[in-house]
Each structure stands twice: as structure tokens, then as C-alpha cells.
Amino acid sequence: MRDFLKLLKKHDELKIIDTPLEVDLEIAHLAYIEAKKPNGGKALLFTQPIRKEHDQIKTFDMPVLMNAFGSFKRLDLLLKTPIESLQQRMQAFLHFSAPKNFTEGLKVLKDLWDLRHIFPKKTARPKDLIIKQDKEVNLWDLPVLKTWEKDGGAFITMGQVYTQSLDHKKKNLGMYRLQVYDKNHLGLHWQIHKDSQLFFHEYAKAKVKMPVSIAIGGDLLYTWCATAPLPYGVYELMLYGFIREKKARVMPCLSNPLSVPSDCDIVIEGFVDCEKLELEGPFGDHTGY
């Protein structure tokens, strides 16, 4: 994340806002205005997010980044290649055909060799982790935004949601909104056609809780890959490896059997109780509804 922020600043694609601003509506409104500017405006880094709690003001110890994906220029910087070039690479891979001669055969071997990066690599946890467990957990310590006036509360909207099938053979990285209900409960919304929803039904049928981990930050390409419409069963971190041409490095979670990228800034671990449903929202989605 820090490297990407430096890159945005170098290319004049970042505005740093040091004024204390509320996570309840204020930050989201300024980002909305910026995103509507020509060419998507600039990315915004709010260094002093605050929350008004009764007659007191809570100042968060972490900044909020908004509108990072709001322009093609910033997307090119994130991908580290023009998006057209990435499209050509992907088309060449998807339209693979058997080689007709020795020269074409060598090219196929090279292309296959390039795919060695797609599978994530397991690594140890960093030694400098700050770990909060049990009663120490407090989701309100995070600067989670309320975006629209009629929203039902604060929502994590850009979290990387990691899940796996009941037999652990399939893994998924998706982006599903998460409503903060209290200090240690999130509401997780996934649509019926999503991979994680299919996994959910496996756990529900087996009457066991479903492990879920939510990562925030790290290389923002993880977040971008989470939105990719890949076929069922294709792990989005494989797309990350294809684009970066290096393996995603993942570490084991502490409280569940999942793995998440070792360079993420925040990881929230937990389980979904498949027998318990909660009311969600309202929530103003990106579609305008």
C-alpha cells in the first residue's frame, strides 16, 4: 500500500487531506465529489479520520484512502502495465492453440513457463504483527465509513473476503459488503450466484460454521482481483500471480484454516454461523439503488 501511495504522489494522482473529517458521511461525500471530476479526479488520503461519539471525538490512528481506482491512469499504475497490454496477454492465453512448428512450440513453452507464478506461495507470518483476540477485538477501532445518509450503519465495502469450500479444495477471494453490527459482529452479504454463497450452502448442509477472513490493504491489486468475474473454482489470487508475474505470498490465519496475503494491513478473522441470519441495510449500492 505504501509503495502505491508513493507512486500516486510521484505522478500527481494523490491529494492528502490533513483536516479532521468524520467517517460518518463527510469523507464519503468529499470522495463522491472528487470521483465526479474529469478523468476521475485524484485519489484522496484522509490522514485524520474522526468519529463523534456522544460529546467526545475519537481520532483514528490510521488513514483512509478513497478513489484509488477512479481513473485509467491510476489503474495503469496499479497494474504496472497499460491495461491494453494486459488484455493482449490474457487474450493470447485464452486463445491458446497447439503449436504447428518448432518455433511456435518454443513460444508455447515460454508461455507455460510464465504461468509458474499463478499459484500462491505459503509463507510464515511476519513477526511484527499486532494481534487482538477475544475481548480485545473492537471493530469500532477501524475507521469504517457510513457512505449515504439513509444507510443502515457503517459498512466495510472494499474488504478482500477469503473463503474456501467445505473440503478445502476450492478457494475464493471476493468482495462482499460487510455491515458493522457491534464490536465483534459483521453482517456479510453475498449474492446467490457468488462462489462464497455456494460454499456457504455446503457448510449449512453440514451444519458447521464457515471460516471467513477479511483482509484490508496490502497490494491493492488483491482488491482489484477480488472483483474479477472469473469462472467458478478459479482462485482470484491466481489472477494476481498472472498479472504481477510473481506468486502471491500468503500466511496462515490464527483462528481459522484460511490463508491471506502476508502484506495486508488489517486482517479480520472469524466464522459465519450458517443457521443465523440478520437484517442488513439499507445500503446505497454503486448501481444507485
Automatic annotation (TrEMBL):
Residues 5-88 form the 3-octaprenyl-4-hydroxybenzoate carboxy-lyase-like N-terminal domain. GO terms for biological process: ubiquinone biosynthetic process. GO terms for cellular component: cytosol. InterPro entries: UbiD, UbiD-like_N, UbiD_Rift_dom. One of its GO terms (molecular function) is 4-hydroxy-3-polyprenylbenzoate decarboxylase activity. Pfam families: UbiD, UbiD_N. Residues 126-289 form the 3-octaprenyl-4-hydroxybenzoate carboxy-lyase-like Rift-related domain. This is UbiD family decarboxylase. The lineage of its organism: Bacteria, Pseudomonadati, Campylobacterota, Epsilonproteobacteria, Campylobacterales.
